[in-house]
């Protein structure tokens, strides 16, 4: 029996169980039937890289020649382009001075179609080429070079380094109708370009606004010089207003393993944006902001170093009034102890849909809140969850397993 007589389900099962990329390529050459099944898998994820260590004993020239041909195929063939769901571009194979490899040094730009020209040297050109050739793209990640040298001309080609528009906002006809993830990382060279950091921030904010109906995750660059300025950028969260209005639950994970927040005040802004979030999303009743940030020893723990959990609860005054509960969580280094602070404020608006049943970890059912002596301050309560049997101010002494309840929160297990 020839391969053409085998059901596609059987062929698909064969190619999915191949462990090596070379075997998959071989299958695509056996017959046209095998090719039709193997090609979507071959082109689903494309990486343009000069990292010779990833390709056994091949030299850099052979690697880049083959990848340049693949890129040309994707750009010239609309069908092939539609199969690409993930495209990455990685410049260097080493962080040492002598081993720095720049992708464009190995690409003959005359052999690459106009849509993909200069794709490794310009965020805007890369995005334009990808949008034009890969209309079904779901994940778009741009990873810069890993060199520690402070001269960006050693990474960016001279022909585009002086181009002030290379990080212009993606506007006009640039569309990603199916984009679910967008990422920028290892772009430290923008620190040395005039206003480069701000241009990247503006790029991110506008992209998430234009793709607000499809985006479910975004990776943003937190630079090693991160401080309150960087946190203020994260705090804008303007893309929330572009999310579907039917959204009822929102979980945001901030992955900033290189960011050390040793002052509690730096995290305070995250605990004061609840009214803005719930005012924008009328059906939202649950929102978590979880920040995986490094400890004093520059490592991350199994649980977020900082987190805030918002819950919208019903109010006795009626549907236009809600009780917004804010539960802040701060991890105590180096132990896995937590200080939890709960507060509740009254909010008013045109709310829709159902409310949350309880505040985070049922905080609203654990005794009475302490009213502030100042009338304009929210009601608050605070306690420290410890692993021993020391009595706690709140919750009451009968709740001996609150520490475990924090650790077993389902979103921490998912993340």
TrEMBL record:
Domain (F-box) spans 1-46
**Matching PROSITE patterns:** FBOX
Species: Coleophoma crateriformis
SUPFAM superfamilies assigned: F-box domain (SSF81383)
Q: Transmembrane stretches, by residue range?
A: none
Q: Pfam families from the entry?
A: F-box-like (PF12937)
InterPro entries in alphabetical order: F-box-like_dom_sf, F-box_dom, LRR_dom_sf
Protein name as annotated: F-box domain-containing protein
């Amino acid at each position: 029996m020839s391969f053409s007589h085998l059901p596609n389900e059987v062929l698909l099962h064969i190619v999915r169980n191949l462990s090596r990329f070379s075997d998959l390529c071989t299958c695509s050459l056996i017959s046209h039937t095998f090719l039709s099944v193997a090609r979507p898998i071959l082109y689903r994820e494309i990486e343009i890289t000069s990292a010779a260590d990833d390709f056994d004993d091949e030299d850099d020239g052979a690697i880049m020649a083959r990848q340049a041909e693949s890129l040309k195929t994707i750009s010239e063939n609309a069908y092939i382009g539609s199969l690409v769901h993930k495209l990455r571009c990685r410049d260097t194979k080493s962080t040492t001075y002598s081993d720095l490899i720049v992708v464009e040094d190995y690409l003959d730009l005359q052999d690459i179609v106009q849509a993909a020209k200069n794709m490794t040297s310009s965020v805007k050109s890369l995005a334009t080429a990808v949008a034009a050739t890969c209309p079904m793209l779901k994940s778009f990640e741009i990873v810069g070079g890993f060199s520690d040298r402070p001269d960006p001309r050693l990474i960016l080609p001279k022909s585009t380094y002086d181009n002030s528009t290379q990080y212009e906002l993606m506007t006009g006809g640039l569309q990603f109708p199916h984009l679910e993830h967008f990422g920028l990382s290892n772009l430290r060279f923008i620190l040395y370009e005039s206003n480069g950091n701000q241009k990247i921030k503006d790029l991110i904010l506008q992209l998430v606004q234009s793709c607000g109906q499809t985006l479910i995750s975004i990776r943003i660059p937190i630079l090693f010089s991160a401080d309150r300025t960087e946190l203020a950028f994260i705090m804008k969260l303007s893309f929330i207003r572009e999310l579907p209005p039917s959204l009822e639950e929102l979980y945001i994970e901030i992955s900033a393993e290189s960011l050390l927040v040793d002052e509690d005040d730096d995290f305070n802004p995250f605990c004061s944006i609840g009214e803005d979030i719930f005012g924008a999303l009328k059906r939202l009743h649950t929102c978590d902001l979880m920040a995986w940030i490094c400890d004093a020893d520059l490592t991350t723990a199994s649980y977020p170093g900082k987190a805030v959990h918002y819950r919208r609860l019903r109010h006795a005054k009626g549907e236009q009034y809600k009780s917004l509960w804010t539960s802040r969580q701060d991890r105590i280094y180096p132990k896995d102890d937590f200080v939890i602070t709960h507060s509740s404020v009254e909010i008013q608006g045109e709310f829709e849909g159902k409310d949350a049943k309880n505040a985070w970890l049922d905080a609203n059912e654990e005794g009475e809140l302490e009213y502030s002596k100042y009338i304009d301050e929210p009601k608050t309560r605070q306690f420290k969850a410890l692993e021993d049997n020391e009595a706690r101010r709140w919750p009451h002494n009968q709740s001996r397993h609150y520490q475990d309840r924090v650790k077993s929160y389902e979103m921490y297990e998912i993340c």
